[in-house]
Prior knowledge:
Layout: E1 19-24, H1 37-46, H2 48-53, E2 57-62, E3 65-75, E4 81-87, H3 91-96, E5 98-106, E6 110-113, H4 114-120
Antiparallel strand pairs: 1-2, 2-6, 3-4, 3-5
Amino acid sequence: MIRRECGLCTLAIEPTAQLVFIGETEARYYLEPPLHPHCAAYALQVCPVLHAAGDTIEVALTHTYTLAEDRITGVSPDGRLRRGVFPYRDLAARHLAVLEFYLAFPDTPERVTAPTWLAEHAPQLLP
């Protein structure tokens, strides 16, 4: 996500190109990197888990996203991890908490259910 590389093919995504995030309906953020539209179409067609999820999976289309950090801030008395979301590269956060994930927050995404996007908007894959 930091280098704006596709999570499937690992090639760079051009700065002005559309990005596709795949996740649950109305997700605020994504743990997985963005994808090229062709790579997203491929993943949605060949991954049994994504394909079977139907309308509970959507694509978020955007050109930009904001990174944040999910950090472990401590442990509760009952043993559960406490977490916090911090701005990307926040120097204070490095001293306060342990980095667990990067989070991508799409900027003004257009959201479409995965089956609708595949049927009406996704690029066609080569036969």
